[in-house]
Write a structure and sequence with these properties.
This protein has about 260 residues and is mainly α. The protein contains 12 helices and 3 strands, in the order H-H-H-H-H-H-H-E-E-E-H-H-H-H-H. The protein has helices at about 1-15, 20-40, 45-50, 60-65, 80-90, 100-110, 115-120, 155-165, 180-195, 210-220, 225-230, 235-245; strands at about 125, 130-135, 150-155. The protein has a 3-stranded antiparallel beta sheet with strand order 1-2-3. Helix 6 (about 100-110) crosses helix 9 (about 180-195), helix 10 (about 210-220) crosses helix 12 (about 235-245) and helix 11 (about 225-230) crosses helix 12. The longest helix has 21 residues, at about 20-40. The model has no long low-confidence stretch (mean pLDDT about 90).
């Protein structure tokens, strides 16, 4: 594994000579390649493959280390003014494009992932005094990415979602004529609409930036711990590094 990594790194250094940012991005790609292989040939998986006659080098993948690479520079959060304009513009789409509106609403006001918006059901909602509790729960066709959890939608948002009925007769919160159309609403259609409104791609994602904005707002208003809970992350480091960003100075230091 080390030989393969070294040779590939030498190729990347020649290919991106004079382009430091491009080289770092390519090194991160090399590390993702290693991570994908390690997900298959982990130590636990190799124990289950004991009876298989695997090539000698395969076991090296489980203990291989990634090449040193800078973390990607994350874009700034969506500006508050832009999000306000997006919400106003999307409200005008509610009757004409209810599926896209519902996907947008679930991601912005509930912080759902795209796949969670596809799976979201009316049964996930429970009314409370402060708002509609939306529990991300397993179904016959869906398992949450990390674990089950919940978020709290404003009362008016939950009411509007429940006013919608799906053409396919299902209890999905994102109305659509078919499961395929529902997925398109939550992924391609929403991303295309956001791009048309001026939202830029971040690390290959567009609509996912709505979830990131939601998590950052929870952190701003209720603290980092609650942001981690609302995002349903397994650790605070993920929330801090990928959603909220590193703390920064808000006031200059006073000397003397």
């Amino acid at each position: 594994v080390k030989v393969v990594q070294s040779r590939r790194l030498e190729e990347l250094q020649r290919e991106f000579a004079g382009d430091l940012a491009g080289l770092e991005q390519a090194k991160r790609g090399l590390n993702r390649w290693l991570a994908r292989i390690q997900s298959v040939f982990s130590r636990e998986a190799l124990d289950d493959m004991e009876r298989l006659h695997l090539p000698p080098g395969v076991r090296e993948f489980a203990s291989a280390l990634p090449v040193p690479a800078r973390k990607p520079e994350l874009c700034e959060q969506l500006p508050d003014e832009l999000v306000a304009r997006l919400a106003t513009a999307m409200e005008r789409e509610r009757e004409a494009r209810p599926g896209v509106w519902a996907a947008f609403t679930l991601m912005l006001y509930g912080g759902l992932r795209n796949c969670e918006a596809v799976a979201a059901r009316r049964s996930w909602l429970t009314r409370e005094v402060a708002g509609w509790r939306l529990k991300v729960a397993p179904t016959e066709e869906f398992l949450p990415k990390r674990s089950s959890g919940s978020t709290l939608l404003p009362l008016v948002v939950g009411d509007q979602l429940l006013e919608l009925t799906s053409p396919d007769g299902s209890d999905h919160l994102v109305p659509a004529a078919t499961d395929y159309a529902r997925r398109e609403h939550c992924y391609r259609d929403l991303s295309e609409w956001l791009r048309a409104q001026g939202v830029q791609t971040e690390l290959g994602k567009v609509s996912y930036r709505l979830r990131k904005y939601f998590v950052s707002m929870v952190s701003r208003q209720q603290g980092l711990v609650m942001a981690m809970v609302a995002a349903r992350h397994g650790d605070m480091a993920t929330t801090q590094a990928n959603y909220v960003g590193a703390p920064r100075m808000e006031q200059p230091v006073k000397i003397g």
